[in-house]
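Technical annex, item 7. During the second reporting period the consortium partners agreed on a shared format for inverse folding records so that results from different sites could be compared directly. Each record opens with the tokenized structure and is followed by the designed sequence. A conforming record, contributed by the partner at site C, is shown below for reference.
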């Protein structure tokens, strides 16, 4: 089996005392430790540097550098089993060598500290995806904590990100910001970890119109495992509700746009999606629900790999 997961917060996974866990990529206290991936599964993971909303300016830059340094150290220490990838070809080469693939991402545009020249700096680090905002406001725009759209800086940074080979991620972006983005984006973008608002009404999820627009633009959408984004009812059958999201996306024409975007180590997850081994089991559950192996192969890795081949420079 092959799996590409578009989002986890494992690099900033916290211990019980609020400190960050050491070597999280191979720390069994984490949801997404490579040591937990079932034998024989080829896994590619987007590792996001999560930028807390409280950091701005130099503090944001310093925080990013701290987490990136930890990431680089882990890649060096575990080089026999995991490799950083900057292209789809790199991912396939890692798999062929029997290694896990890791793609560096950033969750939160505060990493730029309002400075366009920092786009090149993070691109040189190998950052390939950037979530523009988290829940609150930064120099680029805002998440659902406000109704503000993209700032003028935010509108100006979009083409710079595109030209630098950093794919824009609209997860967390509020509705006004999404609308603004449509006016300035010229290349396909992603929602690395977002579900369907028609199935679960949280405003972090995508509306049907957003989904249709993303299909028309050949974008990619990663299914989020967070309980609050799967269902409005905490007593639901989460596996069934997860299937309903998939069925809804397919009904809207997004069959070739769907991927996985777990939110491992960043959210409360249902038991049925709580670890790599449970995700592997979900494949068989969804087969029994009537999805075909071709559809599931696309969702579990194929659509993401094709998107990366077309868009990840």
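Designed sequence (site C submission):
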């Amino acid at each position: 089996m092959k799996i590409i997961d578009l989002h986890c917060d494992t690099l900033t996974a916290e211990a019980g005392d609020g400190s960050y866990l050491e070597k999280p990529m191979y720390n069994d206290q984490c949801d997404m430790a490579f040591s937990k991936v079932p034998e024989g599964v080829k896994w590619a993971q987007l590792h996001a540097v999560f930028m807390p909303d409280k950091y701005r300016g130099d503090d944001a830059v310093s925080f990013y550098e701290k987490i990136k340094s930890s990431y680089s150290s882990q890649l060096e220490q575990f080089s026999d089993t995991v490799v950083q990838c900057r292209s789809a070809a790199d991912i396939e080469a890692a798999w062929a060598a029997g290694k896990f693939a890791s793609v560096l991402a950033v969750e939160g545009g505060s990493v730029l500290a309002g400075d366009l020249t920092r786009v090149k700096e993070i691109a040189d680090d190998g950052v390939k995806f950037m979530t523009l905002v988290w829940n609150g406001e930064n120099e680029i725009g805002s998440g659902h904590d406000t109704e503000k759209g993209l700032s003028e800086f935010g509108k100006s940074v979009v083409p710079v990100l595109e030209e630098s080979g950093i794919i824009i991620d609209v997860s967390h972006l509020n509705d006004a910001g999404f609308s603004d983005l449509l006016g300035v984006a010229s290349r396909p973008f992603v929602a690395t970890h977002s579900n369907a608002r028609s199935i679960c009404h949280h405003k972090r999820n995508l509306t049907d119109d957003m989904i249709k627009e993303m299909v028309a633009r050949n974008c990619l959408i990663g299914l989020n495992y967070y309980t609050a984004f799967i269902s409005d009812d905490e007593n639901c059958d989460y596996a069934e509700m997860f299937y309903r999201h998939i069925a809804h996306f397919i009904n809207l024409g997004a069959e070739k746009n769907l991927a996985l975007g777990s939110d491992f180590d960043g959210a409360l997850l249902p038991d049925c999606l709580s670890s790599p081994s449970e995700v592997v089991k979900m494949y068989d559950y969804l087969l029994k629900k009537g999805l075909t192996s071709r559809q599931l192969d696309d969702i579990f890795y194929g659509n993401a790999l094709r998107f990366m081949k077309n868009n990840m420079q």
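The longest strand covers residues 42-50. The chain is about 40% helix and 15% strand. All partners now use this format for quarterly exchanges.
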